[in-house]
Amino acid sequence: MRSCSAKVAAAKPAFFAWSEAHLAALGERALTAEQRRQLESVVASWLAANRELTRVEGVRLSDFASTAGAVADERTSQVKGLLSSVKSASRAADQALLLGERGLFLLHRLPFLWRLQARLASQELLGDAIERLAEGPDAPIPRLAGAARRVLRQGLALVAVVGGAGVLLWWLGPRARRRALHPI
Predict the structure, then answer these.
(1) Distance of alpha carbon 35 from its chain centroid, rounded?
(2) Which candidate, 88, 81, 93, places its Cα nearest to that of 35?
(3) Of 31, 142, 144, 184, which cross-links 35 as Cys (Cβ 3.0–4.6 Å)?
(4) How far apart are CA 105 and CA 166, in angstroms?
(5) Dist CA 87 CA 109 (whole Å)
(6) pTM for this one?
């Protein structure tokens, strides 16, 4: 079984070939044939002058123009003319990349933000509901509390009456049986 890094290493040449073909198609749409020829010439001379660089992901076309200009002033004027049309496309691509990265950043945080919004909404709804139920002249909680107090008082009075009647029947019970057996 091949390791993951071996699989990645095996896939790199195919990816670079696809990437080069894709970029060439984009270049054909964005640049004229003369501009593409000039760009290829500048890139070839830059690669020849910078053979020791193996990590070039930080190199931007706008930076490329000034580097190429340091090599030859004449070529710089050609490159600046060429790359001025590409400079705005490079900025747009950088902004698109940044927008994509921000989107991914937000996507990872959306569940937290949704939970936070749900908590805030529920707290606000619950607070409004409690306020409407507890305050104001038509608030049902104070009215229900008063009614519950009245029912409680009446219930306690009824319990007292029933309890008193029970005690009275208990006390009268033996006497009432004796009288039933022995009428006067």
Answers:
(1) 44
(2) 81
(3) 31
(4) 76
(5) 33
(6) 0.32
pLDDT tens track for 133-171? 888 777 877 778 888 889 999 989 989 898 888 888 887
- Residues whose CB falls within 8 Å of the CB of residue 60, separated by 6 or more in sequence, listed in order: 90, 94
C-alpha distance across the termini of the chain, in Å: 113
| CA–CA distances in Å: residue 43 to residues 48, 59, 79, 181 | 9, 12, 10, 129
Contacts for 83 with CB less than 8 Å, ≥ 6 apart: 39, 61, 62, 64, 65
Q: How far apart are CA 75 and CA 81, in angstroms?
A: 10
Taking alpha carbons only, the member of 59, 60, 65, 93 closest to residue 81 is 65
